Amino acid sequence: xxxxxxxxxxxxxxxxxxxxxxxxxxxxxxxxxxxxxxxxxxxxxxxxxxxxxxxxxxxxxxxxxxxxxxxxxxxxxxxxxxxxxxxxxxxxxxxxxxxxxxxxxxxxxxxxxxxxxxxxxxxxxxxxxxxxxxxxxxxxxxxxxxxxxxxxxxxxxxxxxxxxxxxxxxxxxxxxxxxxxxxxxxxxxxxxxxxxxxxxxxxxxxxxxxxxxxxxxxxxxxxxxxxxxxxxxxxxxxxxxxxxxxxxxxxxxxxxxxxxxxxxxxxxxxxxxxxxxxxxxxxxxxxxxxxxxxxxxxxxxxxxxxxxxxxxxxxxxxxxxxxxxxxxxxxxxxxxxxxxxxxxxxxxxxxxxxxxxxxxxxxxxxxxxxxxxxxxxxxxxxxxxxxxxxxxxxxxxxxxxxxxxxxxxxxxxxxxxxxxxxxxxxxxxxxxxxxxxxxxxxxxxxxxxxxxxxxxxxxxxxxxxxxxxxxxxxxxxxxxxxxxxxxxxxxxxxxxxxxxxxxxxxxxxxxxxxxxxxxxxxxxxxxxxxxxxxxxxxxxxxxxxxxxxxxxxxxxxxxxxxxxxxxxxxxxxxxxxxxxxxxxxxxxxxxxxxxxxxxxxxxxxxxxxxxxxxxxxxxxxxxx
Length: 624
Prior knowledge:
The chain is mostly beta strands. The chain contains nine helices and 40 strands. Strands 1, 4, 5, 7, 12, 13, 14 and 18 form an eight-stranded antiparallel sheet that branches. Strands 2-3-6-15-8-9-10-11 form an eight-stranded antiparallel sheet, with no helix packed on it. Strands 19, 20, 21, 22, 23, 24 and 25 form a seven-stranded antiparallel sheet that branches.
């Protein structure tokens, strides 16, 4: 009996298709990933550019819980990468690793995930990553065990397959030992085979099926990613991939558990009299927000269309006022996910004292991101700016869920976050889906207290005459705010050791730019219109400059530049010699915090353990 309904109940909004994974891994031969290159004319290129699969049938790329998936029906849908060994130069010759993220809806006595295999009676050649009724399997034939027509050895895993959940399955062969790993852990091995892999002359290199020259048994379930390598991955590498995706491994389909939030409610674009709330569930639902200044909550507003990613905006609120709220999401079967009652505060007016947090480059380090978020929340900001690279791969949906929104959930549920887009977001639709920002979203401006923030996409052209330069110039010229702050991902000034010229080896083909040349095209606007502080990320360290005017230090009229890129990305270091503009550099995970009242600002930078390592206070003269 097929369990296709288990997966069909998870098929949600179709995804935009973009390349989104690293293709420079050592020994990587092929890499197919849902949500990557689009299927066109029944052809699907892999991300390395080495192969193109023929798509049989019409499998759908859809959202399955926190990830994308190519969903196969178990009847007529599968992929053919090559039709014989001679036409498949991307097949490994001796050392091999094959890794797949797979969710099975139904199991078979002898099923296949991917492989190039032929098994007709005593004729046994090739390799196959597959499964049986209970567990995953890895099969391979080599020259060292050849009895004249080949012998396949099978490693059978011990971990039970659980329908409706994601498994990370890896088979490796180093010329002597077959090993099977499931969810990052060793699950079986065999030493029967040795030497080069023994391939059949005829056969089919397939994905999503047991596929040989005369048999087809399609898989029923979903594939997120399939990779092959010309080397045997180490156990530590496999474990590290599983650890980075522990949220995906822990996820269970709503068929197997109660309806609940995939992403708990969080706050988006706020003003002094409005705020937006968002939440995500695994299947479409209507969202209702109950809110009020006191409990019981007497006001409520609901969305009008069932969606997985739900948005409701509250308007007509009082400035600088605490409100309590609770979010309830209800699906078509009246299953309910309900948050606890928590609170938010509308943004202050120009007369109040207020504060904001600063973080950047959270990327893919949920533990550090959580600790930074908790440190910022402990200081009780009115809002937060994020300097970009919010995730490591903008097209990997599960990173948005497990590496950003869930680790930051306590902070984001009570403090609105205002981001700019980084290069790692890759202009993915997920950035625009998960953040609710004013048009055109890549550039926007907002006020908080007596300050105006100008949020810029430094991935786009910033030169004079460009769309972004024009928008910024108009917004700065019209601003009457006491304080003017900008934020974009790439820094105008940076002392990093190798991002803007190699300060370690001094290679002649890398000029010493000391910052991003595109972002620096905005500096004349900053200086002309009196920007006070320009925040950036991209460099995974901390740096604060002296006030700069016309490429010189000017303590009366200069613009200060702060790089805060220590929210989770791999750490970087400053050049060995000091730059002319730097006042403080620090390697380490960190976050920033600024308190503002009238014409005075106090800025502080803390490491991930909450230790203060930099601070300054500035009172503006009346003529600025």
